[in-house]
Each structure stands twice: as structure tokens, then as C-alpha cells.
Amino acid sequence: MEKVTTTCPWCGCGCGLYLHVENNLITGVSPNRSHPVNHGTLCVKGWNCHEFVQHPDRLTTPIIKDGRATYRRASWEEALGVTAARLAEIRQQYGPDAIGILGSAKCTNEDNFVLMKFARAVIGTNNIDHCARLCHSSTVGGLAAAFGSGAMTNSIDEIRDARVIFVIGSNTTEQHPMIGMHMLEAKDRGAILIVADPRRTQIAQFSHLHMRHKSGTDVALLNAMMNVIITEGLVDLSFIRQRTENFDDFENRVKLYTPETAEQITSVPANDIRKAARIYASEKRSMLFYSMGITQHITGVDNVRSCANLVMLTAHIGQPMTGLNPLRGQNNVQGACDVGALPDVYSGYQKVADPAARKKFELAWSRPMPEKPGLTLTEMIDGIHEGKIRALYIMGENPVVSDPDAAHVKEALACLEFLAVQDIFLSDTAEYAHVILPATTFAEKDGTFTNTERRVQKIRKAVPPAGDSKPDYEIICNLSKLMGYPMDYRAAHEIMEEIALLTPSYGGILHHRLDANFGLQWPCFGMDHPGTPYLHRKKFTRGMGAFIPVEFIPPAEPTDSEYPYILTTGRSYFHYHTGTMCRRTVTLEREEPECTVEINPADAKRLEIRANEPVRLKSRRGSIEVKARVTGTVPEGIVFIPFHFREAAANLLTINAVDPNAKIPEFKVCAVAVEPVRRKPGTRQSPPLSYYEGMRIGLDLYIPPEEMLPKT
Amino acid sequence: MPAMYILNKNHLSFWLRKLKTTHQLIAPMRDVSGDIVLTELPRMHETALDGPALMPSPKEFLQPQMEQLFCYSREGIEEAINKQSRVLFGIRSCDLSAIRILDLFYLGKNKDVYYETRRARTVLVSIACNQPDPTCFCLGLGTGPFLKSGFDLQFTDLGDRFLVDAGSETGTALVEGFPHIFTEPTQSDKEDLYEARLASQSRFEKRVNLDQVHKRIKAGSVSDSFWESVAVRCFECGGCVYNCPVCTCFNVIDRPEAVDSGKRIRIWDTCMFKGFTRMAGGVVPAEAKIIRTKRWFHHKLVHWPAQFGTFGCVGCGRCAVSCPGKIDMATVALRIKGTDQMEEGR
What we know:
The complex is a heterodimer.
Chain A: E1 2-7, E2 16-22, E3 25-31, H1 44-47, E4 63-66, E5 70-73, H2 76-94, E6 99-102, H3 109-123, E7 128-129, H4 132-135, H5 137-146, E8 164-168, H6 172-175, H7 177-188, E9 192-196, H8 202-206, E10 209-211, H9 218-231, H10 237-243, E11 244-245, H11 247-254, H12 259-266, H13 270-282, E12 286-290, H14 292-295, H15 300-313, E13 324-326, H16 333-338, H17 355-365, H18 377-386, E14 391-395, H19 399-402, H20 406-414, E15 418-423, E16 435-438, E17 447-450, E18 455-459, H21 472-482, H22 492-502, E19 520-521, E20 545-546, E21 565-570, H23 586-591, E22 596-599, H24 601-607, E23 614-618, E24 623-630, E25 638-642, E26 670-676, H25 691-698
Chain B: E1 3-8, H1 12-22, E2 24-30, E3 36-40, E4 66-73, E5 76-79, E6 86-92, H2 93-106, H3 113-120, E7 122-127, E8 153-157, E9 161-166, H4 169-176, E10 182-183, H5 187-202, H6 210-218, H7 224-231, H8 239-243, E11 250-256, E12 262-268, H9 289-308, H10 318-322, H11 329-345
Parallel strand pairs in B: 2-6, 6-7, 7-8
Antiparallel strand pairs in B: 1-9, 1-10, 2-3, 4-5, 4-12, 8-9, 11-12
Helix pairs in contact in B: 6-11, 7-9
């Protein structure tokens, strides 16, 4: 038995763990005791992360789709040959900008960097994006404008020494359990915990003050808090004078938001807002955390700016145990952004529009770089409908389940001229693909993940790849070679070398430095740089911190008499995103085998819905049938659904209204109608299909093993 | 009276290397990240015996987290029984006590052939604890830090040498072939041993009396509101059960690989999960977290003693490390006892 130390593949905490390997089979997982994030603990997903790696459903050979629905296994030569030829053809016919590329926050930094290079140097387009668009693009944009750097400013290990912890729009104990653990520890050590969330989550149950504001009214709430801080003189004037700009404009705007006005908008009692503001502002060591509850709105960027204003107003930044801390949802969503899988920046957020940056990459890659920033993920889907995008290359993403307004996405993918999907399982998106390429999981390749606190950590190969699957970067390198641009990386660490060379903030991050002390936190400028535990120490990255006045804008789709409930979507503790991995993990799938909708007892009573009965949810875009979970977790007038379940996809209901700056869709608010589904007494519902059965029967995605195929 | 030997520390690697020729040698080793893990030892001099309790417990070598039971196909069933002979070197006294409790469960009335085969081929060499962790509380339970029986060999660190107790014939056989390194202990060695035992007992930071807790629970004086305050801190990670050297929950699942063939595997499971009690009709009797949390403590503190005459806890303190909500056995037991004293004080 061997134990391979690696990094957890689920959320952005980036816990350290061991994979237990015996005779090339993964037999278990155990936590790393000295890791600065998890200290010997793991959440339920971490404890079960070994199971999907060697699942029989893994893709083991490339698959080519002939005609409408016949799949056949193919060799790598053939599959890559077809892909290269089709991409070249489409580029020839419609120009490089007719091709869109999607990277993945589940893949390593190296994979995403190579894909980014493939898009820009080989295809010649900036149309590259990934699912950070759907979670934290508003953070990247909003904080870049305010501070100059869109990442968590402080470190996870500092949390337990904080005095005040303010969590807004984050279900921390369930979505970032190990960060939740640190918060609970801080609370045990005397810290005050304030939570702003419409739902009464576990972290809200721990809190000293829980503000249940209406979904989508974060700006009003934060502005009112700042109003209190200013009127009661709790601001740090010397900090504002020395390190920030544009305070006067901002002050004038915020003056309009008295706690009483905010009470009208948010339905949080004015006195609670005052209390929260006083507690947050009067302690020196106050940390502010936020997550999807802030970002996934049409006002996502505004929400983020408000948070930034709040920390600058009270000088809770640039010191340990303070800061503005966006919690990133996926294991490597920070890294995928850092290495430039975004349409407007190269690695290290060097702007595509900047001629100097373009020149640098042109010299390094000896190809002309496209000037115009590319399309975002949400724009690409619309672009397909408009005929701007003709082909998509998707690495490890599942937009059919993860993107808003699923029907719209499916229609788009169906009318593509060419779609290549590179994944570990046959996802719902792969159903629309012309070529499917098998990739390896985190346990079968080397590379690095960057967690939410900017810690670049290694993952290590523990077992040989399943079947003929290959690491993502290798697939792209081979494809690139066929398209006339050889990229000869012999191993992942050579790619990291190139990243370090071209990216100032990753300048000193090389694989051999990451073994000791669980990696390095960027910015790390050189080989002797020890990494940066907290940002903006004496100076903001952009120089002066910018106060940006923000006005409250209501959500895109208000409720009305026809659709009287607010639907908010999110994650469940036991599942993860589109469910391709966790729903193949027995323990996780058993905990929550089906989608449920959380509904307040008062609403349930009014609608005559009983617990565990099926209900139908309808929005202007679609309808789904799910089981009711009658609970006080949600307030009256709001219903909540997790989005992991393909058979009851919450995203059939969501609206694809986006933030004008970050193009992030409003997953958190849309209007729905709820009605009970009455079945005739005595007609028993057939048991729901298991995931595998659904995969095989419902979607016709089952591929018989080699020997059962008709001989040709 | 077990036979005793003295082994100079310099000779340990030599002996381990000899052991490795006949057995798979599992021993604690310092990993690249600085953690000490129980793994197959590649180089003998890398044994690290000074670390805290190993995570997960050595249970994983007798009941692996994921284990294949058999493959099935049209030809029939092919059982996958692990027949490797192993030495578990450097496990703790509490782990040994735990394995004896596992034996009660797996080798009782209904024998588990997979466990039995593994267990019969595993030699247990323990290290008595001179340096208990801050989380350890085996002293009050009699499951450590030094044992009188149950081991094949027990090593006690006496500074520059080990005092080795042989507790079984298997153990004696492993040392008898090397009379030149396993020598007779002198009177002063035995005095040093006595001193080491006393010193170790004084190093325990936690004193937990589970008997009192057991009595209080039996008397019904631990209220549901207390359990509610415990349950609210549960993160439902399952770490307490996965890491526990005594817990035995498992789940059996089939993994079809084709239409007519596949595997049956067994994986660790946790009574802390609500799916653990889900019935065929979809009803979950233990839906509320409080029921599940309470049940785990009750099982260990009330039901185990009734069934096997021993607590389902050996005081290894692993749950204290792996619980994100810090509602481990020692903390909860001390809180129950604390309420006791508070009420007596009134």
C-alpha cells in the first residue's frame, strides 16, 4: 500500500489529502494532518473523492458520433484527426472568431494554460472562457476596479484569530466546510459572527446576528451599513485619506441609504443593520467573506464593489485577520482565471487590449495575437444562435446543466457545426458532441491547483490513466501538433516553467518549490520570494483603492401574481455542480438521490403542499417536478433548489439575464410559480431511475463494450 | 508472563529488513509534506515512531475503505480474498485494543471471511506510548498506553534501546531467529521500563471517565436539548466514523461493468449519514441530525457495553482531530460530566 499526497478535487478550500493505492487501485482517502487548511479533517466529499476515479463509467477511448445518435469508439489518431480537420475547416471558412473554447475550473493550471495558448496561438481567437463566468466573474471584475486584484485578500489560516467574521451570501459550512470549521473555531475563541443570508443555513445557526435580507437586495443592505458607519463616525479617516480615492462621491451616494430606507427594501430591521455595522466597524480584526450570494446577480459587480467599499471604509484590508474574502467554488477556479482562460486577459490578468502584453506573448509564442477581447461563455451561447460561433471545443465542462436557461443552451449546442468535448465521463453536454475525447482525473496526472486563498498546490499521479485516456494538456498538445503548431511539453512541470516565465505573479512558482509547506501563495515574483499570505499590504495593487458609488437596482425578474415566488438556486452539501462525479459516488448519491425544493411551512400550508410530496415549479422558461422539503431554512416567498440534478435541472427555470459588466447570469433570483402535483390515490409512482439507468435509458448514451459491437 | 528482550535502536532497521523478506511491512513513515503516515516502508531507516496517532487508524489494513469482495460473470464468482501476510509495525496500544474489539464484531457468531483472512495473516507489533497526544484519553479506559496482552510484539522506547515484549507465538518466532540482537533484559532495563510507564501516565492531558458518562446516559439525565447543542455543530462529514479504529459500518454495492459481469465492493459507511437508514420506500427514520449524533454516542457508550462488555471507544483521540465541529468523544463526554458537576454543585 502506498499513500500519495495530493490536493482535494472538489471545492476551493484546497484541502490536503492522501490517496491510498494498492496494486494500482485506489482503496481510500485520508486527510493530511499538517495541512494549513484542513488540519486533519475532511468533508464528506473529500472522504469519498476516490470513488469516481476508477468508476466503470469512465470514458476509456475517444468516441466519434456518426450521424444523429450513433456512437463508435475510435482511435486517438482518427479522433484527433477529425477534430483538427474540422476546426481548421471552420477557421478557414468563417475566420478564427467563429470558434469558441471553454476551459475548465476542474482541470489543472497547466491544462488551462495550454488550452489558452491553443486558443490564442493556434486558433487565433480570444474566445476562451470557463465557468468562472458563472461564479466569480463579478469578483474578478469588481475587485480589479477597486483594488487591482480580484482574489481572496487574506488566508484561511488567519480566520481563527479574527474578532469579527461577517459572512454575506455564503453557505460556508456546507460549500466550504473547512473554512466553516475555521469560522466556528474563531467563534469558539470569542469572535462575533454576523451572517447575511435569506436562508437559515448552518453557519447562520452559529451566528450571533442573522440578517435575512430579500434575495437581490445586497447593495441596499451594504449601503445602509456604510451609512451607519459614516454617520456614527466609525470610519478610518487616515486610511481613506492616504490609500483611497473618490471618497466624496461615494459618501454623497451612501447618505441616501438610511437604515430605515434599507429596511423597506431588504426587510431587515433597521436596528439589526445598525448593530451589524457597529460590530463590524469597531473591531480591528474583522474579516468579510462572500460567495455566490453576492456574485450571481445582475448587480453582481455592484455587490462586489459595495463589499470593497465597506472594507476600505473601515480599513479592514492590508493586514492579517482582515480583508475581503471571496470564497471560490471550485478546486481550481482561481487558477484557471490566473492562467488566463478568460476572453480579455492573458495569464496573470495581463490585458489582451494592452499592446505591451500582446507583444510579449507574440514574442514568446511566435504567432500574432488577436487584439479584440473575445466572447464570454454566456455570449458564446447567444453567439451560436446568432451564427457568430460555428464550433465549440469544451474541456471538462457541462454547460447543458450548469448554464442558465438550459433549453436555450441545448438548442444552441444542437445547431453547432462542430462540437468537441473532452471529459472524464459522458456528460449531458457530450450528448451533443461530434467528437468525445477521454481525459484523466486528478488522480491520474501531475499538475497544480490554485485554491481560494491563492495557494498553488501540487496534485500527483497516483494511478495509471483509465483505458486510453490522456491528461488534458497532452490531448491539446497533440491536437495542436496536428494543426501545425507543435507544443512539446514532456511533463506538467515544463508547462509551469512557461507560466512562470510569462506571468509576473507566478514568477517564482515552479513544481519543485511546491513540495515543502503545501505550495506557495501568489503573488510570488521570484525564486527567493516566499509567497504572499495577504494582499494590499502597504499599497493596493492598482495604487489607490477606489471607492465606487453604487446604486441599488432590483433583480431582473420581479415576482408578480402569475409567478409569485422567488427561486434561488445553489449547491447542496453532498453534491457538486452538475453531478457527473458525485452522483457516481455511492455515499454521496445515497444522501441526496433526488432533487428537492425547500419551501417555507407557511407557503406550503397556503399551497396545500405536504412534505415529500411532488410539486411543480414553473417559470417563464420551463418547468420541473421535484419533491418538496418543507423547512424553515427558507423564508416565506422564497424557494430554493440545488442545481446538480440533470433529471430536474434547476437551470431549466433560471433566467439568462446577465450583469452588464461581468456577464454573470442571475442564478439567485427568478420568479416562479409553485403548485402541488396531485396524483390519483392508489396510483403509485414508479421509483425514480438511478443515475446510471437514466444515463443509459433516458439519454441513449450507453456505449456497449467492445466485444458487443457489431463487427464491421 | 511474556518473554522480554532488549533491542538496540541501531539494530531496528536490520531486523525490519529481515522482516520485509517474508512479510509486507507496514510502518509509519514521514511523508514529503511532513505528516507521518502508515504505509509500506520503502527504506527501513525512514521509520518515524515519534509522531501523533496515525490517521486513519490501522483498521484500514483489516477492513479497507474500499475493498473488492468478488467479481461476477457468466462463468461464476471469483472471490478476491487478500492473502498477503503483513506486519503492522509501530501501531499504538489503543489501536491494538481496537483491533481486539473489531475481532469481537467480525469474528463472533457471524464470521467475516475477508476480515478473518486478513486478520490471521497480520502480525501486530505495537509501540507503547511514551508520549501521548494532547487528544489521547486511553488511560482511563485501560486500552493503553501500555498493554499486557493482545499484541504479537510490544516495543517500549527506553531512550537508546527498545524493550520488546513478546505476547504470542507468532511474535516470539519473529525475534527468536535473531538472538544476537534481541538480548536478555537486565534488572536496570526493567526499572527503566517501570519508570517509562509511570512517566507516560503522568503525561495525559485529558482525563475522561466514560463509566460515569455511561451511568448518566443510562439514568436518562442527558437531555435532548444537550444532544441538540451537540448536533448543531455536526458537519456531517463522517470523519469520526471513518477515522475511528472501532467503528465497523460498511456498505455493499454492485458495480456492473457490462451487461453480464461486474464487481461487488464494500466501502466504509457511516451511521452519521441520513442515507444510512433510508428504507426502500424512501422513508428516512433518522432524518434529524440530533438522532444520528445521539445514536453514535449511545452506540459507543451504551449499546457496545451491553453487547460486548466493552466501550466502543479506545480513547485514541482521532475524532478530536478529524471533527470540524469539535464534538468528539472526549469533548462531549467531558461536557456531560461537566453538567453533572454543575448540577451537583447546585
